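Hi support team,

I've been running sequence recovery on a batch of backbones for a student project. Most finish fine, but this one hangs at about 90% for roughly twenty minutes before it completes. I'm not sure whether the input is malformed or the queue is just slow. I've pasted the structure tokens below so you can try to reproduce it. Let me know if you need the job ID as well.

Thanks,
M.K.
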């Protein structure tokens, strides 16, 4: 089994989980935040068979898009700056063992 872990922006994550569910994949959404911007994002865990990984990545590409967001500077007196975020950050991992107990 493979674990596809997707970090997406909240609006994209909603569209992605809906697309995954419609395609009959199982997914778990966790609320998370980026270490750099400290904005809320979402981490979606999808456990699939190896032959399904490409199809899941296709759904990610269709639903997750790049955006420019304003980053509040952490330094006093500095203005905001623009940062490009996304589409999605994706990790694909081998799962050593999968159980439903
Ligand atoms: P953040 O850490 O809040 O990063 C948001 C965006 O800020 C990044 O977009 C990138 O364009 C920029 N950025 C991040 N770190 C930077 C730095 N040290 N200097 C300059 N710009 C920086 P994305 O690359 O699309 O990442 C979106 C979110 O995905 C990240 O939010 C983070 O939550 C996650 N992420 C990205 N790469 C990761 C990694 N290697 N490991 C774990 N999480 C990652």
């Amino acid at each position: 089994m493979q674990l596809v872990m997707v970090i997406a922006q909240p609006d994209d994550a909603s569209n992605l989980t809906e697309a995954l569910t419609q395609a009959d994949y199982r997914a778990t959404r966790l609320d998370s935040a980026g270490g750099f911007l400290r904005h809320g994002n979402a981490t979606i865990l999808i456990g699939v068979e190896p032959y399904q990984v490409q199809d899941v990545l296709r759904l990610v590409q269709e639903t997750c898009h790049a955006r420019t967001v304003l980053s509040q500077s952490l330094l006093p007196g500095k203005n905001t700056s623009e940062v490009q975020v996304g589409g999605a950050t994706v990790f694909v991992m081998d799962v050593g063992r999968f159980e439903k107990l």
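--
Follow-up from support: It reproduced on our side and the slowdown came from queue contention, not your input. The chain has two helices and six strands. No action needed from you.
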